[in-house]
Design brief:
Layout lengths: L1 H24 L19 H11 L13 H13 L1 H6 L1 E5 L3 E6 L9 E6 L22 E2 L2 E3 L7 H16 L8 E6 L10 H10 L6 E10 L9 E9 L1 E10 L3 E2 L8 H14 L8 H10 L5 H8 L1 H15 L1 H7 L2 E9 L5 E2 L2 E10 L5 H12 L4 E5 L15 H13 L3 E8 L15 E9 L1 H6 L6 E3 H17 L2
Parallel strand pairs: 3-6, 3-7, 7-16, 8-15
Antiparallel strand pairs: 1-2, 2-6, 4-5, 5-17, 7-8, 9-13, 9-14, 10-12, 11-13
Helix pairs in contact: 1-9, 2-5, 5-15, 10-11, 13-15
The structure holds zinc ion.
The site of zinc ion has 5 residues, from loops.
C-alpha cells in the first residue's frame, strides 16, 4: 500500500515537473526585434532651450496662490524658441495658462495622437537640510548636465516634444494623422484647471484620439531584479487615490480623572489596526502584464516562477511585498496615516480626535472597497470614517495588444538599443487620468534612463538631466511622431 502511494506520488511529482518545465520553456518573449537607428544630429540649441525653460519659475504650490506671471513668461518663451511650431500649428491657451497645439494631419480619417506634459513644477526647498549644488532655478549647465527643478519632471517632456516638432517642421514633415500637444499648468496640484479643462475642450470638439502619451514611468537601470538590461516601463494604468478621515468623539474632561478609554487612545488603536492589517495583496492586471513581459527575460529559476503563476502566485506576491516599499505598493492598496490631530493643553482630555489616512488604490479595487475594509478592520462604532473629497478611482487599464502599444514599443527600441520593454502600473497620479474619455489607450512613459538615485531627485534636491539623456528624449519623440503615421 505504502509502496503504491509512494509510486503515485512519484508519478504526480514527475508530471508536475514536466508541466513546470514545459510552461517555462514555452514562455515566449514579448519583445520585438527592431534595429536601433543611428542617432539623428541635434543642435546645441536644444540644451540651451531646456536650460532657459528651467530658469522660469513655473511653480504650482496650491490652487489659490498660483502666480500666473511665470506661466505667461513661459508661454512667451515657447513662442520665441519654437517659431515654426508657433506659426504652423494652431496654438490655443486653455483656461489662460494651459496650452494646446494642433498639428493638422493630412488624413482626417485617422485618429489623432495626443502628446501631453505639464509646465508647472513643485517648489524647491532644501530637502532634509541638503543643499542644492546649484540654485534650483539657475538652469546651470554643468558636467554635461542641465541642472534644476523641472529638468526631469516635466520640462524634459514639454521641451523635448517641442524640439522634436520644431525639427520635423523644419524638415518639411507633414503628419498623416493630427497631432495634439497639450501642456497643463497645474499637474502637481491635481490638474483640475489645466489638463481637465483641455480634456473637456477636446471632448466638446468630439475628439477621439488613437492614443495618448504622458509622463510616468522611465527606462530603469538596475531596478528590475533579475534583469541586467535596462527595462523601459510603460504605465498602462495608475492607482486610485482616496484620503479618509477617522474621528472619535468622547466626553473629554480633566486629565486627573481620565476615563479608561480616551479619544486619543481609541483613535490610535484604530490607526494601528489599519496599519497592521492592510488590504490584501494581489496581482492586478497591469502587474500581471508586467510579469508576462519581464518573465521570459529572467534567469531560469525566476522564469520558471513567472511562467507558472498558476502555482507560484503566492510566492511571487510575497517576494514583491517584502522586496521594498515600492514593490509592496505594486501589489496592494497601500495605507498611509498622514495627519493626526487632537488636544489643546497638557492637562485637558480632548473630547475629539481625528486622523487622516491616504490610500492608493490598486486597479480592480475601489474607494468603496477601502471604506468597507476600514469598517471591517476597526470594528469600533465610536470611530467614524469619512471619505474626503478629491478622491479618484484607479484608472482603467490600457490595451497593449494593439498597434498603438506596438508603435511605442518600436520607437523605444529604435532609440534605446538593448532595452527590454514592459507595461506596468504607475503608483502616483498623472494628468493622463483626465483624458480617459478621449482615448482608451493612455500610456505613461518618459524616455529617460534612470537608476534609483536619479528617481530620488524627482521632487527632491539636485534634480538634473544629462545632456545626452535629454537629446535621446528628443530623438525618441521625433521617432514616435514619425512611427505613429
Ligand atoms: Zn510630473
Amino acid at each position: 500500500m505504502v509502496k503504491k502511494t509512494l509510486k503515485a506520488l512519484g508519478i504526480a511529482l514527475a508530471l508536475l515537473i514536466v508541466v513546470l518545465l514545459v510552461k517555462t520553456l514555452t514562455y515566449k518573449t514579448r519583445q520585438i526585434a527592431v534595429e536601433p537607428l543611428a542617432p539623428v544630429a541635434l543642435s546645441d540649441k536644444c540644451i540651451t532651450h531646456l536650460s532657459e525653460a528651467v530658469k522660469i519659475k513655473t511653480v504650482s504650490h496650491d490652487v489659490t496662490t498660483l502666480d500666473s506671471a511665470p506661466f505667461y513668461q513661459f508661454q512667451a518663451f515657447l513662442k520665441q524658441s519654437y517659431p515654426l511650431a508657433d506659426s504652423l500649428l494652431h496654438r490655443q491657451c486653455i483656461n489662460k495658462l494651459s496650452l494646446l497645439y494642433t498639428w493638422k494631419g493630412k488624413n482626417p480619417a485617422l485618429q489623432p495622437l495626443l502628446l501631453i506634459g505639464h509646465m508647472d513644477v513643485v517648489p524647491a526647498e532644501n530637502g532634509g537640510g541638503e543643499q542644492w549644488e546649484f540654485p534650483p532655478f539657475s538652469g546651470e549647465i554643468n558636467n554635461n548636465a542641465v541642472c534644476g527643478r523641472g529638468t526631469l519632471d516635466d520640462k524634459v517632456n514639454v521641451i523635448g516634444l517641442l524640439e522634436a516638432v520644431e525639427m520635423l517642421l523644419k524638415e518639411g514633415f507633414k503628419p498623416e494623422r493630427t497631432i495634439y500637444l497639450a501642456f497643463g499648468h497645474d499637474e502637481e496640484i491635481g490638474g483640475e484647471k489645466g489638463a481637465a479643462k483641455i480634456a473637456a475642450y477636446l471632448q466638446e470638439q468630439h475628439v477621439k484620439a488613437g492614443f495618448l502619451l504622458d509622463e510616468g514611468l522611465v527606462i530603469t537601470k538596475g531596478i528590475v531584479p533579475g534583469i541586467k538590461k535596462n527595462v523601459a516601463l510603460i504605465g498602462i494604468s495608475e492607482k486610485g487615490y482616496v484620503s479618509v478621515e477617522l474621528a472619535v468623539e468622547t466626553d473629554g474632561g480633566h486629565s486627573s480623572m481620565p476615563a479608561r478609554e480616551t479619544a486619543i487612545g481609541i483613535l490610535s488603536e484604530a490607526v494601528s489596526k489599519l496599519e497592521k492589517h492592510p488590504m490584501r495583496s494581489q496581482l492586478s492586471a497591469p502587474v500581471q502584464r508586467f510579469l508576462d513581459y519581464v518573465g521570459p527575460e529572467m534567469p531560469f529559476l525566476q522564469r520558471l516562477a513567472f511562467a507558472n503563476q498558476w502555482l507560484l502566485k503566492n510566492l511571487i506576491l510575497s517576494i514583491y511585498e517584502k522586496s521594498s516599499n515600492a514593490g509592496n505598493a505594486l501589489v496592494r492598496t497601500t495605507t498611509a496615516p498622514t495627519l493626526f490631530k487632537s488636544g489643546t493643553k497638557d492637562n485637558v482630555l480632548p473630547g475629539y480626535a481625528t486622523a487622516t489616512l491616504n490610500f492608493r488604490i490598486l486597479p480592480g479595487e475601489t474607494s468603496d472597497d477601502v471604506m468597507a475594509h476600514i469598517r471591517k478592520t476597526i470594528k469600533d462604532k465610536r470611530v467614524k470614517a469619512k471619505k474626503l473629497p478629491n478622491f479618484s478611482e484607479p484608472s482603467p487599464v490600457s490595451e497593449i495588444d494593439c498597434p498603438e502599444f506596438a508603435c511605442l514599443q518600436k520607437s523605444i527600441s529604435q532609440t534605446f538599443s538593448n532595452t527590454i520593454i514592459a507595461p506596468s502600473l504607475v503608483l502616483a497620479a498623472t494628468d493622463a487620468r483626465h483624458y480617459s474619455a478621449i482615448t482608451k489607450n493612455l500610456y505613461r512613459f518618459i524616455p529617460l534612463i534612470a537608476e534609483s538615485d536619479d528617481l530620488k531627485r524627482i521632487h527632491g534636491v539636485n534634480e538634473k538631466i544629462s545632456c545626452s539623456d535629454f537629446l535621446n528624449a528628443v530623438r525618441f519623440y521625433r521617432q514616435l511622431i514619425i512611427n505613429a503615421q
